Here is the input.
Amino acid sequence: MIPEFDWGVFLSEPWNSYQIETTMKIVGMGFLVSAACGWIGVFLIVRRMALIGDAISHSVLPGIVLAAMLFHTLSGPWIIIGAGLAGFLTTVFIEWIQKHSRIKSDAAIGIVFTSLFALGIVMVSQMKGSVHLDADCVLFGNLAEVATRNGDFILPPNMIQAAIVLGLTILLSLMFYKELLVSSFDPILARSIGIRAGLVHYGKMAWLSVIVVTAFEAVGSVIVIAMLIIPGATALLLSDKLRVALVLSLVHALLSSVIGYHLALWLNSNIPAAMVVAGLLLFGLAWVFSPSQGIIPVWMARRDFSERIALSRSGRK
Amino acid sequence: MAESESESPALEVHDLTVAYHKKPVLWGVDFEIPAGNLVGIVGPNGAGKSTLIKAAMGLLPLSSGWVEMFGEPLEENRHRVGYVPQREDIDWDFPVSVMDVVLMGRYGKLGLFKWPKKEDRRVAEESLAKVKMLPFANRQISNLSGGQQQRVFLARALAQESDMYFMDEPFAGVDAATESAIIDLLRDLKSKGKTVFVVHHDLSTVKEYFDWLILLNTRLVAHGPTEEVFNPDMLGKTYGGQLTVMTEVAEALARDDGLDATRRH
Amino acid sequence: MNWWSSERRIPVSNCYWIVAIVFLLAAPSAFAARIGDLSETTVLEQAARFFTFQDPAVRMALIGCILLGICCGLLGTFIVVRQFALVGDTLAHAVLPGIALGYLWSLEKAPLPLFIGAVAAGIIGAVVVSLIRQTTKTKRDSALGIVLGGFYGVGILLISIIQERYPRDVAGLKSFLFGSAAALNESDVWMIGIITVVSVVILVLFYGQFKVVSFDGVYARSIGISAQFFHYLLMLLLAWAVVAALQAVGVVLVSAMLIIPAATAYLLTDRLHWMLLLSTCFGILVAAVGAFLSFLGPNLPTGPFIVLTASAVFLLVFAFAPRHGLVSRWWRRLKQTRQITRENSLKAIYHLQEAGGFAEEWITIEKLSEQRHRSAEETQQEVTSLVKHGLVLRDGNRLQFSPTGKSRAAEIVRNHRLWELYLTDRANIAPDHVHDDAEKIEHILGEETIRRMEESLNLPAVDPHGSQIPQVKKEVTS
Here is the structure.
């Protein structure tokens, strides 16, 4: 079942001169997608909005399928507009249900995103034509194929789009860092000094849709949730400073892409899923060894503490 | 400019009614507060104290009435208002340091796309020094005691360099040392001509701390200089429970579907 | 709102379903085939075949859907009232690695290994979430997100490995992702049936405990109920419901079956036992109808159709529910707005009479339109409506109160002035600020409140602006 692990074949061979281009492209695409998700994920986590990430990543599907049906492509501006629209409708529907009934936010979110996702799947099952979009793509993603596709430039078009989106994600969050920080931490102060917290929120949701869409063809709509939450959650186990956590989420994205790629080669498996598993392992390591919150350091600190108390007690006797 | 300012009150609230889900939580509140006072906002739980300061800062939709600061509409005076939130409203696990929090006080003065400058850092450090929290500048906010956390938010308000402050229960759950530090700070602000509104719970210290009072119980019971309004009669009215009739009417309003359009018909 | 204080009642009626289903299972079954392939011509005939259990080919699918509807409807109720929607979604995704391993065990779609694998993975997922929250500062939503995404990733990894190894067999495994009711066979249905029966029995036995724990965990502990035990029991039942629904609905959309039927029921009732019953009915309805729809065409995944049916039912109830529905609310609002308009016209007539010292009872329509600041046309409409409701008598261009109109007008004016007086006198509100408020409140003051105000103000005669407060003698007949 599990192939024997061969250092040469699975670790060094991908990086020799024949295969390095493919390796770089696949790992690079994985990193770009996972980094953009992880970066915005940090902002979702600190506002306790992981559920929204879950919802948006599912509910943009009908928008993607509609744009793909009309424009026969899975990258470029139309897909982004379609998905942005679906993301916007999601937030509007959720608020509408909450406003006009007694249903609480979590159930309202659950209703809206599963319904839109189901609609998307039915549309996918009816799709015929030139675009490669099927249920497998939604569930597993097509990372290897997308990353090695030929385009007009040296790099495949999806990769260029992902690189631009990652760059813009970092740039925008640095430009609006103050606004993002204060409206996440203390919305009342934000509004009292004239920052429109609602606008910041909708902007963040719209940009989240863009990121999810960019990731869609490579990793599908479900794996992307793991990429939104796991890098940020790992980073926030290791640091209690937002800026450090953001940088650490990039490190996590890079490591999980590289390790995940080798894992996939070894196990001969789906690449995005292997990257998620690698990311989960990194989270596990941080959970056990993180200096401030890790299981072992916390346990050792507690043992030291109780030993010292025991010592001081016996000393007093 | 200075002339007109000394004449117009620091805060004027006119016929202010605020409703949550159509249920009024503040009815027709009217008052004028002259500048340079320490103002205590006192009343039982659910009297609308926090609602009043949020409405005064223009953060809630008003069912009726208006608010003016220094004789001008709110919007033009945003930068002159400082705010200290209630402790429970803050997520203390949020990944920010003490310095980050205090620098937030400067954000209102920075334009879009601007990062805090050296000058802002200096103001933040001075503010921290005033509350004796400078040594903790790089600590994460969850690693502080309750009193220390409160002082960080006071430092943030100081860094805002405002003319008017709203503080939501700054004395709740703090140690005696912090309480006396806060009151020193309030007096210092007053001596500089600032107006400070403080939501307060402890009736035993009201007389000592504040020179002006707003007694609230969903409606305004009384307001004025402390020596005039702080008496058993007024306190009895404030804490004597809500008026049954007003509670009934508020419930009826919350149940009602058709009243939004009343005015036109 | 107070379903917790309602008397204990158990949704016994569900049990009859199970008896019927077990009976049907005993009948011989044939191979599954799509009804779309059969020779019927109209949808109606197909529906008749599908829903009457006549067609042995789809009997298993229909029974399976009914059972999963019961399971998800019941468990979903607790999901919705405890605000556990994300927990349901997480558990649904977390079972995937267990399914893959269970499949690997026997390399076929054998129910028992799949069941054990899925339930084990679901429970491990729930435990990991609790552990992450207990040992780190990670919040609930992130912990759930990590397990949801992470476990799903592990599941997909395993499935893709199996797929590489045994390419032929994987079609069966893939039906777990989006669901395929056609793939349900007799042994699957037996397993789902057993799950459903055991879940219902547990829910019936511990109904009271579940109710208390969902409403108030602290109180539950104070009377000796272990909230933690029932939390994990609920998680176990939830994992079972997920497994029951997996084949037909699929991993990705199971949470919809947990949330939407229960949320639909929540729109209709406040009581827990009614909600359980309604939610079960909706669950059965949408699962059966959705499965039927997916049978109508080739290659239609069942899960999405069930979910879309559920959303359609939700929308219908959302619009037409008798008390909270959009349409009934809009209708109530319209009626009330009209009533307020009529009452304002009555008040205007009263004011006109009052200005004349009540010497002249007849008022011209022009005067009324002037008083109300309305166009002649609008006033004509208002007058017509007043006459229709028997509130005024009309003589050409002139109006006069009918006896009912007169007493209603006096009531409105009294309400207005009493409220103004109350606000100025008792609530310290300035006399020049009370009018606008009274314009609203006058229409909704009840007799009880009026009586209390009159008592508190000692039957006042004059309002703060010096106008007389009319005394209203209630007629005995009304």
